[in-house]
From TrEMBL:
Annotated pathway: Amino-acid biosynthesis; L-leucine biosynthesis; L-leucine from 3-methyl-2-oxobutanoate: step 4/4; Amino-acid biosynthesis; L-valine biosynthesis; L-valine from pyruvate: step 4/4; Amino-acid biosynthesis; L-isoleucine biosynthesis; L-isoleucine from 2-oxobutanoate: step 4/4
Family label: Belongs to the class-IV pyridoxal-phosphate-dependent aminotransferase family.
Signal peptide (residue range): none
Species this chain originates from: Steroidobacter denitrificans
Gene3D superfamilies documented for this protein: 3.30.470.10, D-amino Acid Aminotransferase, subunit A, domain 2
Record-given protein name: Branched-chain-amino-acid aminotransferase
Gene name in the database record: ilvE
Keyword Nucleus on entry: no
Organism superkingdom: Bacteria
UniProt catalytic activity: L-leucine + 2-oxoglutarate = 4-methyl-2-oxopentanoate + L-glutamate; L-isoleucine + 2-oxoglutarate = (S)-3-methyl-2-oxopentanoate + L-glutamate; L-valine + 2-oxoglutarate = 3-methyl-2-oxobutanoate + L-glutamate
GO molecular function list: L-isoleucine-2-oxoglutarate transaminase activity; L-leucine-2-oxoglutarate transaminase activity; L-valine-2-oxoglutarate transaminase activity
Length: 310
């Protein structure tokens, strides 16, 4: 179970954790109509900081726009709510955060004449490494899923909506059933897309490759962070379509996400990646990334959002 915190921000009010409930006939529960974010807050010497909060909030509003969900708060109000929920819960050691908005309880039906009201929530709680602390250091075993990713112009991959995660569930559950830590989805054209909840990078001959906008990926904020850090460290980064077999020829592979952070992959379909351990490029990018939070990497981009200035 989730490590409960004291309060959840629910439609502008602080509600006790166990009281933050919704009616069983809420639209989102039946039709997947939630747009959401997964954000991390890190402990630093300056207190807890929310990583790239404004970018996450922007993506939340982008997802809402795609689905014509009219969030009854401004981005600034959501940002303030995110900071407030860290402070009131005393989450100084860091947290995982879920800001989201959904079609709530009203009329039943896919697109009823009177649209259901929009509920807006920000929750935060303590959460460790998504793919395991051991995975961050030693890498994980993944497989290519028998399930492919969302096709263009079906369910939009750029929107981070609850319904998309039916695809992710099929991919991730299959992988775990077969003894892997995570599954990789191919696009319907057969090229590499992403993990069930992570973007994917491949390193070969010191060049870093990652699938792009046309490959049914979520535009990950950690992905963007890694691309930025890699380029300032002098690496060439190419955003392009990758054939499946490129995974088997990689020197290094890693997955990125707010939950997964930067997780090395040590095998794909039981074929070792490089030497079967975390590689030097992955390690360099991990230290650049985690260095943002212990002051070793200068935050030139204003990515760290303090919580004490609401
Ligand atoms: N792809 C999918 C399908 C995801 O769920 C996530 C996690 N939000 C990512 C990629 C990584 O995105 P981010 O780095 O913004 O968390």
């Amino acid at each position: 179970p989730i490590q409960a915190a004291k309060h959840i921000w629910y439609n502008g009010k602080l509600v006790p954790w166990e009281k933050a409930t919704v009616h069983v006939l809420a639209h989102a529960l039946h039709y997947g109509s939630t747009v959401f974010e997964g954000v991390r807050c890190y402990a630093t010497a300056q207190g807890p900081v929310i990583f790239r909060l404004r970018d996450h909030t922007r993506r939340l509003f982008d997802s809402a726009r795609i689905y014509r969900i009219d969030i009854p708060y401004t981005p600034d109000e959501i940002n303030a709510a995110c900071k407030e929920i860290i402070v009131v819960n005393g989450l100084d050691k860091g947290a995982y955060m879920r800001p989201f908005a959904f079609r709530s309880y009203g009329e039943i039906g896919v697109a009823p004449k009177t649209p259901p009201p929009i509920d807006t929530v920000v929750a935060a709680f303590e959460w460790g490494a998504y793919l395991g602390a051991d995975g961050l250091e030693n890498g994980i075993d993944v497989c290519v899923s028998s399930w492919q990713r969302l096709a263009a112009n079906t369910i939009p991959a750029l929107g981070k909506a609850a319904g998309n995660y039916l695809s992710s569930q099929l991919i991730s559950m299959e992988a775990k059933r077969l003894g892997f830590a995570e599954g990789i989805g191919l696009g319907i054209d057969g090229s590499v897309s992403e993990g069930a909840g992570e973007n994917l990078f491949v390193v070969r001959d010191n060049v870093i490759y990652t699938p792009g906008l046309a490959n049914a990926i979520l535009q990950g904020i950690t992905r963007d962070t890694v691309i930025t850090l890699a380029r300032i460290h002098g690496f060439e980064v190419r955003e392009q379509a990758l054939p499946r077999e490129f995974l088997y020829l990689a020197d290094e592979i890693f997955l990125t996400g707010s939950a997964a952070e930067i997780t090395p992959v040590r095998s794909v379909d039981r074929i070792e990646v490089g030497s079967g351990k975390r590689g030097p490029v992955t390690e360099a990018l991990q230290s650049a990334f985690f260095g943002l939070f212990d002051g070793k990497t200068e935050d030139k981009w204003g990515w760290l959002e303090r919580c004490d200035d609401i």
